[in-house]
């Protein structure tokens, strides 16, 4: 074996040392990256842009409508008659073996009866009769007329004091007298029950209004459909005695009013529909809607995904970041930011004041779970326009 010189030995030692250092460096880099296709470094990030739209968070005014339904009715001003019941081809009879009276029921509106009805009337159009029995007419159990045997039309007035809101008219045949074996009968071609009317028929409706509705009043709207009318007189609408409309309405009527226009009061209010002389209006779907404002709180909630790799980074101690842009502050206050995890647990991330511009807050592994989570923005006393929300892990 050839013996190395002293200089050659030193060069060979330096080469071996250099090769060893290179090997160590390669090994360190390989261990830091991990096996091919394995997990990520804790220094990697995921950037999730949730929304670029600007939305309101916090206090806001909400419109609260309340509709008072008045319904369907007719109003008129006139002098004349009104038929309440009209029936045809009827018969009443009585014999030794029994009787068959006529029974007719009819109703009268209480307001109409008290204010506009002067009396009633009954028209009997008799087509045939046995001519041996009297005709007995009862109203609400009281005999109001005894008609001797006849054929043709018989009519008579009914005093107002005999009329009620609910009425029962009975027409009976008396016993034939000495012809006890015969049957007394009356055949009617027509029977009419009517009312004599004088004056103005109104529709009156009452409704309650709260103090909150008046203090936070925004607007009111009266709406209805005109089904039939006679425009010789105006439709007149009053609220608490104040005239809020007088004229000939269009088919589909709608009119808005201010609080001063209506003269609303806390508690009971009265709206009245009537017409001037010669007018007639049949209205349907009549309703008054009062809108007032009420303070509410609006929150903003956006979902984001935490992948298994991102969850691993958070477990390793990395902090997540929520970035958001405050475009405008309508009312200064506290902004609360929460995260709701996949199990429904809600964790408060921060509760403080923020300024306009870009802001960010941090969250940890304790605030989220792997999967779908939600970031929630709330404010109990402020109002913010927020957008550009991003979650970075």
Structure in words:
The protein is mainly beta and 393 residues long. The chain folds into 3 domains: 63-72 and 203-291, Sandwich (Jelly Rolls), CATH 2.60.120.260; 78-200, Galactose-binding domain-like (Jelly Rolls, Sandwich); 299-392, Jelly Rolls, CATH 2.60.120.260. Helices cover 13% and strands 61% of the residues. The protein has 5 helices and 24 strands. Strands 1, 2, 3, 5, 8, 10, 12, 15, 17, 19, 22 and 24 form a 12-stranded antiparallel beta sheet that branches. It has a 4-stranded antiparallel beta sheet with strand order 4-9-6-7, with no helix packed on it. Strands 11-16-13-14 form a 4-stranded antiparallel beta sheet. The model is unreliable at 1-10 and 26-43 (pLDDT under 50).
Can I get a quick summary?
The protein is 13% helix and 61% strand. By secondary structure, it is mainly β.
Ordered list of secondary-structure elements with their pairings:
Blueprint: H1 6-33, E1 47-51, E2 55-95, E3 98-100, E4 102-107, H2 110-115, E5 117-129, E6 135-139, E7 142-147, E8 152-159, E9 166-173, E10 184-201, E11 203-209, H3 211-215, E12 217-231, E13 235-239, E14 242-247, E15 252-257, H4 259-262, E16 267-275, E17 279-298, E18 300-306, H5 308-315, E19 320-331, E20 335-340, E21 346-352, E22 357-363, E23 371-378, E24 383-392
Antiparallel strand pairs: 1-24, 2-3, 2-10, 2-17, 2-24, 4-9, 5-8, 5-10, 6-7, 6-9, 11-16, 12-15, 12-17, 13-14, 13-16, 18-23, 19-22, 19-24, 20-21, 20-23
């Amino acid at each position: 074996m050839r013996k190395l010189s002293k200089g050659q030995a030193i060069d060979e030692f330096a080469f071996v040392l250099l090769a060893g250092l290179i090997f160590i460096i390669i090994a360190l880099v390989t261990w830091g990256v991990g096996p091919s296709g394995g997990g990520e470094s804790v220094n990697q990030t995921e950037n999730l842009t949730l929304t670029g739209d600007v939305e309101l968070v916090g206090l806001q005014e909400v419109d609260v409508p309340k509709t008072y339904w008045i319904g369907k009715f007719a109003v008129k001003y006139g002098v004349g008659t009104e038929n309440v019941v009209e029936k045809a081809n009827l018969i009443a009879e009585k014999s030794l073996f029994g009787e068959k009276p006529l029974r007719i029921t009819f109703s009268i509106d209480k307001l109409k009866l008290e204010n506009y009805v002067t009396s009633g009337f009954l028209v009997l159009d008799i087509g045939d009769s046995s001519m041996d029995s009297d005709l007995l007419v009862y109203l609400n159990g009281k005999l109001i007329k005894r008609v001797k045997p006849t054929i043709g039309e018989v009519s008579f007035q009914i005093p107002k004091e005999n009329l009620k809101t609910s009425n029962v008219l009975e027409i009976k045949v008396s016993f034939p007298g000495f012809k006890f074996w015969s049957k007394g009968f009356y055949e009617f071609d027509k029977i009419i029950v009517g009312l004599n009317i004088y004056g103005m028929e109104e529709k009156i409706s009452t409704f309650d209004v709260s103090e909150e509705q008046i203090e936070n009043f925004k607007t009111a709207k009266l709406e209805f459909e005109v089904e039939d009318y006679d425009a010789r007189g105006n439709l007149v609408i009053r609220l608490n005695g104040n005239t809020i409309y007088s004229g000939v309405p269009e088919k589909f009527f709608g009119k808005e009013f201010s609080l001063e226009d209506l003269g609303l009061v806390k508690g009971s209010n009265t709206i009245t529909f009537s017409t001037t002389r010669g007018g007639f209006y049949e209205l349907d779907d009549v309703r008054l809607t009062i809108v007032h404002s009420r303070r509410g709180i609006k929150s903003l909630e956006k979902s984001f995904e935490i992948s298994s790799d991102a969850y691993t980074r958070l477990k390793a101690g990395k902090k997540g970041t929520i970035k958001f842009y405050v475009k405008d502050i309508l009312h200064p206050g506290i902004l609360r930011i929460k995260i709701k995890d996949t199990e429904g647990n809600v964790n408060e991330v921060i509760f403080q004041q923020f300024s306009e511009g870009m802001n960010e807050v941090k969250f940890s592994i304790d605030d989220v779970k792997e999967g779908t989570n939600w970031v929630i923005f709330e404010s109990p006393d402020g109002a913010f326009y927020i957008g550009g929300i991003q979650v970075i892990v």
